[in-house]
Amino acid sequence: MAYELKIWNANKSVLLNTITDETPGGLSDGFKWQLTPTGDTVQLEASGRNDRLRLHPRAVVQLRVDDEPAFYGVVPDPDSLNSQEVTSFQVLGGREVLLRTLMDGATFRDMGVYAIARSIFSRLCPPALTYDPTQIGDGSGTDAGPVLSTYYAPTSTLDEVLTALARAAGVAGGVDNQGRIFLGRPTLPPLAVAYSSQPWRRLRVQGRETVTQAILRVVSAPGEGALSARTGVNESFGLPYLPATISVTATAPEHALYGASRSIAAPEGISLTRNSYAGELVFNEMDGAPATDGDPDTGTTTTGPTPGILIRNTTERVIGLRLRYRYEPTDGLVGVVWIQHATFHPEGGSAFESTVAFGLPESGGTREMVFIAPPSAEVVTNGWDISQVQVYVITPDGAGTAPVNLVIYDMAQIVVDEVAALRLAESYLQVPPTSPAEVSLPALVPPRPEVTITASPDGDVTGSTNLWEYVHQSGQLHSTLIRLGSDGQSDVGRAIKFAVRGA
Length: 503
What we know:
Radius of gyration: 29 Å
Distance between the termini: 45 Å
Oligomer: single chain
Largest sheet: 13 strands, mixed
Strand content: 35-45%
Shape: elongated
């Protein structure tokens, strides 16, 4: 039962030391390390003299036990290289490297999550880690994954990028015990363990982590450039425009019991909207190829002095417009984009609508604009039935006698991406197991998300695992602590975590 600890400098360009169980003055009194159920490295704890270990600041460490990969990470705070005292040190998991690396300005549109991740990490993977395309997705190295309409996060760290993409796909991500970045790779099947008098300990329920309803905010305010807004009933527009918060809700079956709701925002860069070309299309004094055909090279041109286009959508939640156009106004003409939302008032049949207007800027050539306008809170409360987007040109007096030079090349409604948003919201749900427990096995067992303990004091217990802890004792004994439904964190550690989160 041998171990090997390799130590490199921060960018892994120089191998500084190799420590084994036969190295004089090596690791003292055994060591332990932790992995998540999907194999993400968490922490390694060991002790020794640094004048012999030679741990440099942010040194990269790889541990092998019995010739098998065990842990990979970074030493954030080593002792002085001249220290002759035996002290403990910590090695943080490989994601610590990603915390110090920033995303670039790349933009991704209508691409799968796994394809986005491969593009990013193939270019930006730090030298201390390894990029392997087969560790992203289903193992083929080519699958695209769930589609995102837009991803753009130029100020995010790569750790935040990995977390956001994992949530968007509803899978796990991390850095494994070989230093490889992974995302959504296939996991091991559930492990069945016979209790058979194995050491067993019941753990305290972690109820503070409970989320049984996640409300994901999509949009809550209109975009910049709105000229006016109005709301009303029966064509009375006296009420102020109060934009509704458009959200998507994921609810666990246990919500009726726990009632634990949480409001969340999408991670940076993740778009919860998409372009839509659905809906009824109406032209007014416009001619040419349909402006909603998705072809940026075909356009609809004006044929009269008061041109306009309207799209009415009754099947999707419209919150805005993406417009590619050319507009060179003549004297007295004003281009306007109207975004209207309507329902039917419960006390009658009249329309209850909110309308937001935007000015259509002069293009000076081809230009693309995005207009965002959520409906009013009243419209959402009363049942949101119709959204329509209008683009037209008017004169101040409404006469419309001057010629108009307006070409619309592409016109798409911006709608809520219900599938992507629900998948992201569901990733925040967390139902507390009622009987969290810890079982110890006298061997090193690869982690996996689910374990069944048969014939335990609580019967057959199947549960999701939260943390796997491995111990290599000085007497060359190995053990694995499996924690079902709990991370095993102490009361003090948990209190500190929640105090920090609250601050």
